[in-house]
Amino acid sequence: METTIKINTDSLTPEFIEGIKKLFPHKTVEITIQPADETEYILSNPAFSQVLQDRIAEYETKKQVISLKDNELL
To answer: b/e string for 8-44 if b means 16 or more Cβ within 10 A?
Structure first.
């Protein structure tokens, strides 16, 4: 069995680790940690995808300059 889990580091708890141990009892597992690609998540959500498409269209027609604060980039 193979599984991929995307999780915010704020959600990493001892209970999370116990859940992994229950998924793979008495097994050696390989854990790779890397930043997740947010693009797939955004495009999989119709509401987020529409906002992105709208912003791209506005940018391409030069109707609106899109500015973001540093904290909005995460």
So the answer is: eeeeeeeeeeeeeeeeeeeeeeeeeeeeeeeeeeeee
